[in-house]
């Protein structure tokens, strides 16, 4: 083989590796910073790329979820890695949904788009700029915890799953997606076969009624219940469930600090600013 052929072969191999690292697996093998940087980069185009259809979202997401929590008049919901607010929007558009939603993501730009779309719903939904790896809520808090199309993009999906289960109340409902198809095989350590995922949920996390259903081309929808029983949390406001990022106390209160306000911890006096779009910027907490 001549030099030119070798160079061309090398360039093609490098292009394939880059395509796999940056496009196919969305930076997950390069670290959390790269994943979030890519989502920030694509945030304004995300909804157009995904082409979520409101009729499908209503039919295949919001209604099935509501049906499974219909025994709770106004559930308290946590949506982890909410992106541009897909799940909160789908639920809040349902006339039958009376609950409250806390939604978080680590891409500030995805949250900005979510804030814009969710503004008409006021304080029925709050948005936190916060990583999925450490959820700032006490154990056994939420009636419903969801994490859609995101587990395969976190550094350690099993650790995040443990966090989701920790903050779900006993008897509460967990709704996840599991990637399938060729993409899943291209993401070793991040995507699971359905059999492995089911084993993980049942055996390692001790969940009940695990149900993996056909859903979209790339994903299955996964339902599971946390064992035990605790009465429904109901539509609690954020200050009753949010732990201070500095001292961990559930003692955050909204305050008027500047044009956009913020949240101050009554215990350690840490201050968490709120962006002009209403997103709570947990990563910018100061003092305490
Ligand atoms: C494919 S999008 C899914 C968004 C939304 N759940 C949906 O179904 O449209 C994946 C989301 O996960 C978020 N994400 C990735 N890693 C994260 C992490 N460690 N903590 C919080 N969010 C994360 C990204 O910023 C992105 O918004």
Detailed description of the structure:
By secondary structure, this protein is of the alpha/beta class. The protein folds into three domains: 3-50; 54-225, Rossmann fold, CATH 3.40.50; 243-284, no CATH class. 35% of the residues lie in helices and 20% in strands. It is built from eight helices and ten strands. The protein has helices at 3-24, 32-50, 54-68, 86-92, 108-118, 157-167, 182-185, 194-204, and strands at residues 76-80, 100-105, 125-129, 142-147, 168-179, 208-214, 219-225, 252-255, 262-265, 271-273. The strands form two sheets. It has a seven-stranded mixed beta sheet, with helices on both faces. A three-stranded antiparallel beta sheet has the order 8-9-10, with no helix packed on it. Strand 8 (252-255) and strand 9 (262-265) form a beta hairpin. Helix 3 (54-68) packs across helix 4 (86-92). It is globular. The model has no long low-confidence stretch (mean pLDDT 95). The structure holds S-adenosylmethionine (SAM). S-adenosylmethionine binds at residues 32, 35-36, 39, 81-83, 86, 105-107, 110, 131-133, 148-150, 153-154.
Number of domains: 3
Unreliable stretches: none
CATH topology name of the largest domain? Rossmann fold
Approximately how much beta-strand content do the residues carry? 15-25%
Biggest β-sheet description: 7 strands, mixed
Helix count equals: 8
Bound ligands: S-adenosylmethionine
Strand order in the sheet with the most strands: 3-2-1-4-5-7-6
Q: What structural class results from the helix and strand content?
A: alpha/beta
Termini Cα gap: 65 Å
> What letter string, H or E per element, gives the SSE order?
HHHEHEHEEHEHHEEEEE
Quaternary state of the chains: single chain
């Amino acid at each position: 083989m001549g030099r030119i052929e070798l160079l061309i072969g090398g360039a093609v191999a490098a292009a394939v590796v880059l395509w796999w690292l940056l496009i196919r697996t969305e930076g997950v093998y390069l670290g959390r910073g790269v994943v979030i940087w890519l989502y920030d980069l694509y945030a304004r185009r995300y909804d157009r790329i995904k082409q979520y259809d409101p009729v499908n979202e209503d039919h295949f997401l919001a209604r099935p979820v509501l049906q499974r929590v219909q025994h709770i008049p106004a559930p308290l919901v946590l949506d982890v890695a909410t992106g541009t607010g897909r799940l909160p929007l789908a639920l809040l558009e349902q006339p039958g949904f009376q609950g409250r939603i806390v939604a978080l993501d680590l891409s500030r730009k995805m949250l900005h788009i979510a804030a814009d779309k969710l503004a008409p719903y006021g304080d029925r939904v709050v948005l936190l700029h916060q990583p999925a790896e450490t959820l700032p809520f006490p154990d056994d808090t939420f009636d419903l915890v969801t994490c859609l199309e995101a587990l395969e993009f976190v550094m350690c999906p099993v650790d995040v799953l443990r966090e989701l289960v920790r903050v779900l109340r006993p008897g509460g409902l967990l709704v996840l997606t599991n990637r399938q198809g060729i993409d899943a095989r291209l993401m070793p350590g991040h995507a699971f076969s359905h059999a492995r995922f089911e084993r993980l949920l049942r055996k390692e996390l001790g969940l009940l009624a695990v149900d993996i259903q056909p859903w979209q081309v790339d994903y299955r929808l996964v339902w599971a219940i946390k064992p035990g029983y605790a009465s429904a949390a109901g539509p609690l406001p954020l200050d009753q469930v949010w732990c201070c990022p500095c001292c961990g106390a559930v003692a955050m209160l909204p305050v008027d600090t500047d044009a956009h306000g913020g949240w101050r911890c009554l215990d350690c006096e840490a201050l968490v600013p709120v962006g002009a779009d209403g997103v709570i910027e947990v990563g910018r907490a100061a003092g305490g």
